[in-house]
Specification:
By secondary structure, the chain is α+β, with helices and mostly antiparallel strands. Helix 15 crosses helix 16, helix 17 crosses helix 20 (about 770-810) and helix 20 runs parallel beside helix 23. About 45% of the residues are buried.
């Protein structure tokens, strides 16, 4: 007898499998690079330091659940007042996020107190912070409503704490991570007084869910969107119209909450830290709380928002203040209504005037400053109607520096007064000396009837420079129809600047928003070719019209930083405009401006964002394997269920199924777009080409991962079976104080009566958490598989001895009663079990986190799955499956295919739907095997046997 046919043999992988393995390796490398990005690259944020020791004074909150608390922050001179519960300022409530501590308020609160003492302002802020027990609110939505209710109670308590004469009319909310969603979710409750909140600042908040781990989170986000709107077809509710919402993201260093998640269309300001004037650096998820330059900008917004001296409403004033500090800061650190007066007197005594009418480009460099103010007049020609002017002010401290005017009737040359355009300028990132840039369209100037541009340089001892460039817009602008493969094989040339004195160039990117790969990362390089001076400085900018903020890159004689650009999947509010690149060059240099694809950054970004769909693809692969195994059982009269690796579907069948399923998905998304809500970075569902490309890619990568993972699992069962058995014995012995006999009996009892394990798991699930019961049963399931494999190995090992004994001593050839079908089917069902455990894993994490407050999880989304699966396991573990020659194996195979299609259609963005579908499949398989006596055997078997018997005599007669 051929013994080797019973040894596990795996088919030789196909060429597609090798391609999938290479893709898996590339994706793993790219993701690893992205995950280690924050450790390998320097953090340019300076940390905030405490000047005095911080104190947190606990405030009692009525109806407290016991695990949450409220504290007032204090330090130094204010400590005694706070301890006596005396508050006089505007309350600011800090809400921590996922696994966040109430102590994270220290940086913002401490800088605020220092600033208050420094400027001796009458404006005061009282900082309060909420302790939410550091719960994992980003992965378990069951705590969101509890946290929201507690924060609402905290706000009522804070208002009542103030004495009558100092009772505030409103408060300010600062939420980090999921704390920002809690701040927005306060308004879900109709009884909450919306007039209490005037300003909400969210820091690294996922306004769109990172992933939907349970239906509680899905429901909570739905309720928040219902009142706040989505910026497209759902406007913000009217009772929220006077609340200012500012959203700040960390940029590409934040690997937990990506820029596309921090963008929300109903916010007054959406900004990234690397685009905020004066910050210009990306922050990670925690650094955004203590980055000194960012914290200072937030504090300035708080103080400037409280000092309204204009005729605007409070809401309009806050919007101007936040826009100045987070988007377009023209000069100073503080904003006030008279920062840039509209009309300015130009003729001053003792002024050096410089007027050159024959040059469109001019540069003034004052290495030692100037003792007297300088005024530059730039006459505009009639041909300049279609022109633009770009100017760069280097180290010019005066707020107002660029004007337009009409010459005085008598002088014909000079202007008495001018219109101030300085508010249109913005400070720009620079490695040395402060820089401001402005670009004006001449038609806007001509509308005022003005014919001159005027620039002023105040007297100073510091090095100062002014660069002016007047040009025809079409000469400095090129249009590029975007293709995602630009810069893949070689750097793509954008501009080659071979003339001096010019400083501004622009590249408009058409069609990027419709590109196949919006998440691809590109680097823009400004390479100086030739410079007439040693020190030079150039800045590249990336502007997306439908978002706030400008991304910067620097090229200088001592520092080169390419501009990193990536168009996040942010919905467009103005489709008529395209994103563009602007280059402010040094007039003394020639440049070559190129673009290339950052391949590994793109792969890593796509892997992190699209990796959220991997659980659904793992479920699809397991279901397709089960479908093939059931199909083998339906089409064979023998016990013929093959190993997992030989039951994988062919790639042709997979792509055919994908093509048909994508057609259904496109139709579903067009009719019911809310069925698959965009989460994380996944927004391509419903787009046929993108869905086909990325679904095929993700399937190949997941399939390759599962191939190697299952091989590793088989190796563990083959070689570590006895070791796992010994470990289990030792564990039981330790629990029973080294009573070996009793532990052997218990282990023997579990092996013979596995229903006891399932009953114990159900009891544990009821009294703790459903996932805990699932995990316990998963370990026992693996123990059973190891035992089954070990029994087969023992038979193979001892078969030569038995053969020698029976054949040579008794003259009989012994048979080998060895069947691997049961192992293969159990192995596939075990993989299904592991995936269900993984989908419910956040529940167990939250349960363990809150165990010292409560021994059971409430609510528990995993309880139903645990009850059904453990009941099914108690039945299957005691049966010899699969039953031979049963009916409906073909229908069971088709059911698995249908379930895999459902996973593809509805579970790629809603992970909480995976577990119920797989649980239902597990239940149907159990019922099919359990009621085999009622189902009966296939009639096809008898027909096949009878026909085979009829054919044999005919062959003998012939």
């Amino acid at each position: 007898m051929d013994v080797w046919k019973y040894i596990v043999r795996i088919k030789v992988p196909s060429p597609v499998s090798y391609v999938s393995a290479i893709l898996l390796l590339i994706f793993t490398t790219g993701v690893y690079k992205q995950l280690t990005l924050t450790q390998k690259t320097a953090n340019n944020c300076e940390m905030t330091f405490m000047f005095e020791y911080p104190h947190f004074v606990e405030i009692s909150v009525p109806m407290n659940r016991g695990k949450y608390n409220l504290y007032a922050y204090t330090e130094g001179q204010t400590m005694e007042k706070i301890k006596s519960m005396k508050f006089y300022g505007t309350p600011v409530v800090f809400i921590p996020g996922h696994s966040g501590s109430y102590r994270q308020v220290r940086s913002i609160a401490s800088v605020n107190i220092r600033k208050m003492y420094h400027i001796q302002s009458n404006i005061k802020f009282d900082f309060f912070t909420v302790d939410l027990n550091e719960e994992y609110s980003a992965v378990f939505g069951g705590v969101l409503l509890q946290q929201t209710a507690f924060v609402s109670q905290c706000i009522d308590t804070i208002i009542k704490t103030y004495e009558y004469d100092y009772k505030p009319t409103s408060i300010i909310l600062i939420g980090h991570s999921m704390g920002g969603i809690i701040a927005k979710g306060l308004f879900i409750d109709p009884s909450f007084d919306t007039d209490l909140v005037e300003l909400i600042i969210t820091l690294a908040t996922p306004h769109r869910p990172l992933f939907l781990a349970d239906h509680y989170m899905d429901s909570y986000y739905d309720q928040v969107e219902k009142i706040w709107g989505n910026g497209l077809d759902k406007p913000r509710s009217s009772f929220l119209s006077n609340i200012s919402l500012l959203s700040i993201g960390g940029g590409h260093r934040d690997l937990m909450v990506w820029p596309c998640l921090t963008y929300t269309p109903h916010a007054d300001i959406n900004a990234l830290s690397l685009a905020i004037p004066g910050v210009w650096t990306s922050t990670d998820h925690q650094c955004i709380l203590w980055c000194k330059s960012l914290v200072k900008s937030i504090v300035r917004v708080l103080f400037d928002s409280a000092e309204s001296e204009s005729d605007n409403t409070i809401y309009e004033w806050r919007k101007k203040v936040s826009s100045y500090h987070f988007d377009k800061r023209s000069n100073g650190k503080w904003f006030h209504s008279n920062l840039h007066p509209i009309t300015v007197k130009l003729n001053e005594p003792n002024v050096i005037e410089w007027n050159e009418t024959y040059k469109l480009q001019r540069s003034i460099s004052l290495e030692k400053g100037t003792a007297m103010p300088i005024v530059i007049h730039l006459p505009l020609f009639e041909k300049s109607f279609n022109y633009e002017m770009t100017a760069e002010a280097v180290n010019i401290e005066y707020h107002d520096w660029v004007f337009s005017c009409k010459p005085d009737y008598y002088s014909k040359k000079h202007c008495l007064f001018g219109t101030n355009w300085s508010s249109n300028s913005t400070i720009s990132v620079s490695k040395h000396m402060k820089r401001r840039h402005i670009t004006l369209k001449m038609p806007d100037v001509n509308k005022l009837g003005h014919s001159n541009l005027v620039f002023k340089i105040k007297n100073t001892k510091k090095p100062t420079a002014l660069n002016i460039d007047l040009y025809e817009a079409s000469d400095r602008t090129n249009q590029m129809s975007w293709r995602f493969w630009y810069g893949v094989f070689d750097k793509h040339l954008l501009w080659k600047v071979g003339v001096f004195e010019t400083i501004q160039y622009k590249t408009i990117l058409h069609g990027w928003s419709a590109s196949l790969c919006m998440h691809c990362v590109y680097n823009v390089h400004m390479v100086p070719i030739k410079c007439s001076k040693k020190h030079h400085h150039a800045v590249s900018k990336f502007i997306v019209p439908w978002t706030q903020g400008v991304l910067h890159g620097i090229t200088s004689d001592s520092y080169v930083e390419p501009l990193r650009i990536s168009l996040e999947n942010i919905p467009q509010s103005n489709a008529t405009k395209n994103p563009y690149l602007q280059f402010i060059l040094d007039p003394k240099c020639h440049y070559r401006i190129e673009l290339d694809l950052s391949f590994m950054d793109s792969i890593g970004t796509i892997g992190l964002k699209y990796g959220l769909t991997f659980p659904s693809y793992i479920g699809i692969i397991i279901l397709l394997v089960l479908s093939n195994q059931f199909s083998q059982l339906a089409n064979s009269t023998k016990d013929d269920c093959s190993i997992y690796h030989n039951s994988l579907p062919s790639i042709i069948r997979v792509f055919k199924t994908l093509a048909v399923t994508i057609c259904f998905l496109t139709a579903i998304q067009s009719q019911w777009p809310n069925v698959n809500k965009p989460i994380g970075g996944i927004d391509w569902l419903g787009h046929p080409l993108k869905t086909m490309v990325f679904s095929s890619l993700l399937y190949c990568i997941t399939n390759s991962f599962m191939y190697f993972a299952t091989i590793a699992l088989w190796m563990m069962m083959l070689f570590w079976g006895k070791a796992i058995n010994e470990l289990l014995v030792r564990f039981i012995m330790k629990m029973l104080r080294k009573n070996a006999t009793l532990s052997d009996w218990i282990l023997y009892g579990f092996g013979k009566l596995p229903i006891l394990v399932s009953m114990i798991a159900i009891l544990i699930s009821y009294h703790t958490c459903g996932t805990v019961g699932l995990v316990i049963s998963a370990f026992f399931y693996y123990f059973l598989l190891c035992t089954m494999v070990q029994d087969c190995i023992d038979q193979l090992i001892y078969y030569p001895v038995i053969f020698f004994k029976d054949y040579f001593m008794k003259g009989e050839k012994p048979g080998l009663n060895l069947s691997l079908t049961s192992i293969h089917l159990h192995f596939s069902l075990f993989l299904l079990w592991l995936l269900i455990c993984g989908c419910h894993l956040p529940c167990s994490i939250e349960w363990a986190r809150n165990y010292h407050h409560s021994k059971y999880l409430d609510p528990d989304p995993s309880w139903i799955s645990s009850l059904i699966l453990n009941t099914c396991a108690g039945i299957l573990w005691q049966m010899d499956i699969p039953k031979r020659n049963l009916k409906f194996y073909a229908q069971l195979s088709n059911l698995c295919v249908v379930a895999s299609i459902i996973l593809f259609l509805f579970c790629q963005t809603a992970l909480f739907r995976i577990a119920p579908i797989l649980t239902l499949v597990f239940l149907i398989v159990t019922l099919h095997q359990c009621f085999s006596s009622w189902i009966g055997v296939q009639d096809l078997i008898d027909n096949q046997v009878s026909s085979a018997n009829d054919k044999v005599p005919q062959k003998k007669m012939e």
